[in-house]
Amino acid sequence: MNSEDFVEALRRHVGDAAVEDMIANLKQPPSRRVPPAERARSDWYNALSPEDAKHVNSVIATAVHEAMFGVLAVLDGARTIDDEGGRFELAYLADQRVILNDPQAIGLHDLLNASS
């Protein structure tokens, strides 16, 4: 696995899945005992026009993308979360060790934007 494969897998298996799960939960919340606030959101969503639901789905997708972008920017060192000046190293271990967030290569957050 290389950086491009990692970002594509993350986008597909985490990002797209989060969007699909959130929309599915809005349409029909799981569980027999749905909390009142979740039931109210579902009722509201299901009452939306198709055009309005499309806009809500787009907002969900944008929020998921922004969260993933932020995490990848932290892993790349483009966004800091401490004052110590350290850096994260993300490695994929299989037959060999591959640094996925190599500071000399294109950033993971940039790859995410390129794949969107």
UniProtKB/TrEMBL annotation:
Superkingdom: Bacteria
Protein name: Uncharacterized protein
UniProt organism field: Roseateles rivi
